[in-house]
Amino acid sequence: MRWIISCIFFFIAVESKSQGKGFEQELQPAVFSLTMVMMHDVVNPPAAARFYTYATLGAYDFMASLNKELPRPSSFFRQYRELDIHPDVKKLDVGFTAIYCIYEAGKELLPSGFMLEKQLTAFEEKYRKKGITAEKLEYSKEIARKYVTHVLAFSKTDNYNKLSARIRYTPSKQPGSWYPTPPAYIEAVEPNWRIIRPMLLDSGEQCKPLPPVAFSQDKTSAFHQLAMEVYEVSNAASQEQKEIAAFWDCNPFAVASSGHMNVGFKKISPGGHWMNIASIASTKAKLPLDKAIFVQVITAATLMDGFISCWDEKYRSNRIRPETYINRQIDSKWMPLLQTPPFPEYTSGHSVISAAAAEVLTHLLGDDFAYTDDTEIMFELPARNFTSFRQAAQEAAISRLYGGIHFRDAIENGVTQGKEIGTIIVTKLKGSVLAKGPGNNR
After folding, report:
1. Residues 353 and 418 sit within 8 Å (Cβ to Cβ)
2. How confident is the model at residue 259 (pLDDT cuts 50, 70, 90)?
3. How confident is the model at residue 325 (pLDDT cuts 50, 70, 90)?
């Protein structure tokens, strides 16, 4: 069969609107520019979270060195040591330097980081027109690059460069084990991700979930009942449930078949969605730039550790996906509402990282922080309103059942796993400046 894959991608130019409010308004466009490049590169979810973390770490290290009220990154990031330099603040522009760190780090980290050059050039030009002198601009860039170089050196010690040397993953044909799914039968994503060094957790096994329900083909078994629930809920999904499933799909590369042609659609990753939620919340809370960067880097690191923990379990239990089981045992023609992602089922990644991020954002901004999430408008999906981060996380989790890609125990135990991760991280952040900061309505 001849495959013609058409990758449909719309690179959306992000224009920031400062309106005299300072560099807080530049942060979301900078981070979202990273998201757009990752969409172009089809960066998988665990790797995307890693990129977000290192891309924002230099900016935070820089800001924390200037504001002693902010916790130093070494106080919660394992093995990280701050860059020991003392820039002349009078000779640089603080906001420009921090935002430049993010663009420059993305340019160096991402496979197609060169695509950020246009945004970076426009960013510089904007502030030249606003009156920043050439000397201040160049000194600001020089300091930013020093922080980026420092963070990149740190990133190279997290075992990422060892992944390619690992033995190629071969799917098991044992009953109950994961096997590639239609329509593209893509090989397993990041089977060795467990070796990546966590940022905040002690190890990927620190928050090991309960074992999954035992596999069985017996129609009276608990496992078969799990599969029947997925089959029945997906088949009878209401319009609201379908909209929820689509809103939280976050599949970086979905493939649609049309005759002999496969068409690829690129979307935002689960971590990218939560990074934008963090931006939306920081903007609503009217956080100053340094605190908004704190929210970004902590959210990113939480996502990174959540994926390490989840992937550790995925390739330990190596459990079959609902689509495979249902096609073999219940209905050979059944298809889930969402495309099944190319990795083992247990636990649900979106459940884990959403619950973890929600715990951290709740700690930082409040447990009744209402907001409107318009992240998916670019994919022609309407915005959704949430009364709290935890409500959003619960909806993200159950969306996997509506979409037909996860069993209930992977969702519920994934939420528990994520909450445990979030709780551990919150403990490390006790006393942080945002615990009772702007936007916290407790």
Report:
1. yes
2. low
3. very high
Close Cβ partners of 41 (under 8 Å, ≥ 6 residues apart)? 110, 111, 112
Which residue, chain included where needed, has tokens 């009744």?
368
Contact (Cβ atoms closer than 8 angstroms) between residue 58 and residue 150: yes
Q: Tokens at residue 133, please?
A: 């002198």
| CA 427/CA 322 separation, integer angstroms | 36
Six token digits for residue 228: 């029947």
Contact between residue 144 and residue 100 where contact means Cβ atoms under 8 Å apart: yes
Q: Give the contacts of 11 (CB within 8 A, at least 6 positions apart).
A: 36, 40, 115
| Sheet strand arrangement including 253-258 | 5-8, 261-266, 253-258
The contacts of residue 120 (CB under 8 Å, 6+ apart) are 100, 103, 104, 107
Q: What are the tokens at 357?
A: 């991020």
Structure tokens at 152: 């990149």
Q: What is the DSSP letter of 383?
A: -
Q: With beta carbons less than 8 A apart as the criterion, state whether 289 and 98 touch.
A: yes
Cα→Cα distances 417→207, 353, 372, 400, 407, Å: 6, 9, 26, 16, 15
Structure tokens at 139: 């000194």
DSSP states of 37-79 as a string? HHHHHT--HHHHHHHHHHHHHHHHHHHHHH-TTSPPGGGTSTT
Coil, strand or helix at 115: helix
DSSP class per residue in 71-131 = PPGGGTSTT---------GGGS-HHHHHHHHHHHHHHHHSTTGGGGHHHHHHHHHHHHHTT
Q: Is the pLDDT of residue 436 over 50?
A: no
How many C-beta neighbours within 10 Å does residue 20 have? 6
Q: Above 60 in pLDDT, residue 20? A: no
Pair type for strands 261-266 and 253-258:
antiparallel
DSSP state of 201: S
